[in-house]
Amino acid sequence: MCVLLGPLTLGPGTPASDDLKVTGSSPQGALWSDPKVVLSLPLSYPKQEGLSCGETNARSVVESFGHVYQRPTRVGLLVRLFGYSLLKSLEKLFESHGVSAPIRSAAGLDDAEKLDLLRSHLETGYPVVIAIGNGHLRRGEYFPAARLILGHYLTIYGFDDPNQTFFVYDSYLDGEPDSGLPVGNETRTYSEILRDWRGPIYYPLIGRRYVFIPATPRDKQEAY
Length: 224
What we know:
- This protein is an alpha+beta fold.
- The strands form three sheets. Strands 2, 4, 5, 7, 8, 9 and 10 form a seven-stranded antiparallel beta sheet that branches. A two-stranded antiparallel sheet has the order 1-6. Strands 3-11 form a two-stranded antiparallel ribbon.
- The chain is built from six helices and eleven strands.
- The protein is 23% helix and 19% strand.
């Protein structure tokens, strides 16, 4: 849910990660060791308009599958009020474009199992969308307090296991992605994903802890 509960003043942020700078290369400065990415890459990485992270991420996934994205012209009251932040609305948006995107939760798994779950779906060749708390409000900086109040969707398009890194699309960020990335417009370390995936403080109240959406073209869908 891309909702900011209350005013947010941005002071100086902390570096996005102490162990990995966003440079498109590994922490040691070498090329990515063993990048694994989805079968079809996104066409672009646009910045979302307003609080439309749900729809913006859905469009990225739909177009990466080679489908034409068509914004619905007739929507219900909840969509008019909240956009596609609500999970069921987002699932229906995917389904209307031929994409299977069931809502899942990894809340009962330990950290290693959570990471295995994300990697296992990516290894099928398709992306996974996760609901997070967003502290990455400026490229290269992190605002811990923001994660506690700002819900967001993030799409993971690949990973590099030796460097403990995911390649992601973050629709909140301005600027062009680093040309050294094999896919996505940003990186997140495994520890950063686990931290942000806990979500804002209100996620447990609305049943959104560790939510993930494994996206698959409907004509390629297998049991998951």
